[in-house]
Amino acid sequence: MESEVARSWRDPELWVKALPSVLLQTTCFLAPLLMTFVLTFQRTRDFQLRWTWDLYTWTDVFSKPHYWTILGHTLVMAVACVVICLVLAFPIAYGLATRFRSYDNEIKVLITFAFITDATLKTFGWVLFLDKNGAANYLLAHLGFPPDTVSFLFTDWATLLGMVYNLLPFAIFTIYLSIDNIDRSLILAAYDAGAGKFRAFWEVTLPLSKPGIWAGSVLIFLLGVGVFLEPKVLGGGKSPMSAELIRQTFETRVNWPLGAALTLVLMVVAVFVVLLFTRVAGMRRAAL
Which residues contact 244 (CB under 8 A, 6 or more apart)? Predict the structure, then answer.
């Protein structure tokens, strides 16, 4: 077996077939990542990039707690978004895969339309709805509620609302696909063994839907740490997240080395959190 593997690696035809994929991945991923890393060792002076090759940018990043406070806030917001999305998405996905199977196509089309609508348009729509003189307070005032009942615009709660609204479809579809692929005979076998509906759900449906839950969690978390529109528009820029800070560093401050360093820090921390959670989840499964 080992000799066959060794011969396959020396096969010129294999290298010819793999070459386009290797070149594409190197060009589109590794090369920009390498350039971003190289950029962190440079400086900007008078809005011009200077090739100095020093550790000034990294010293600046690790010596100022401000950057790490924003990073911690970003991680907390992303985790909160994951939890809320899973709580909201699972019943919807479960209903699509079971109770509303005859209408699942129509419901999925409606969710898809909300998903493909421009995020900027949807986010500014929430501003009009949550504003003190917006639609929400107007309707509540006519129902007898006091003025300015809805007053959490330009807060972290508004930012979190926008994140959940924009990222919820990812959780719905990943969990739906996982539940839809469960063999119905396994659930019927649980009923035949004397399990009730709740126990069959808890011991059969929920464990078998964990791949979709996990995929949705990772996807939403990685997208959540990278949002910048919601904290800027719905949060009013009062409590920025890492992606918004990176955008400001590149565009407003024109400090490309610092923006590149903050980008790499965010990437490394996000991947580390995902790998850590994967490791902990794997250890728990092994213990069971």
Answer: 228, 231, 232, 237
DSSP 239: S
Query: Which residue, chain included where needed, has tokens 């129902």?
Result: 143
By three-state DSSP, how is residue 186 classified?
helix
Residue 236 φ/ψ region, left for φ over 0, alpha for ψ in the -120 to 50 degree band, beta for the rest: left
Calpha distance 255→49 (Å, rounded)? 8
- Integer Cα distance of 49 and 42 in angstroms: 7
Q: Which two tokens stand for residue 133?
A: 């003189």
pLDDT (tens place) for every residue of the chain, 288 residues total:
445 545 555 667 777 777 888 788 778 888 888 999 999 999 888 778 888 888 999 999 999 999 999 999 999 999 999 999 999 999 988 988 888 877 777 777 877 777 777 788 888 888 888 888 888 888 888 887 887 777 888 889 999 999 999 999 889 989 988 998 888 888 888 888 888 888 888 888 888 898 899 999 999 999 999 998 899 899 888 888 999 999 989 988 889 999 999 999 999 999 999 888 888 777 766 665
Asked if residues 167 and 85 have their Cβ atoms less than 8 Å apart, the reply is yes
The total of other beta-carbon atoms located within 10 Å of residue 75's CB is 19
- Maximum C-alpha span of the chain: 81
Rounded alpha-carbon distances, angstroms, from residue 146 to 131, 140, 142, 150? 15, 8, 9, 10
Q: What is the DSSP letter of 102?
A: G
Provide the 10 A C-beta neighbour count for residue 100. 13
Distance CA 8, CA 15 (A): 9
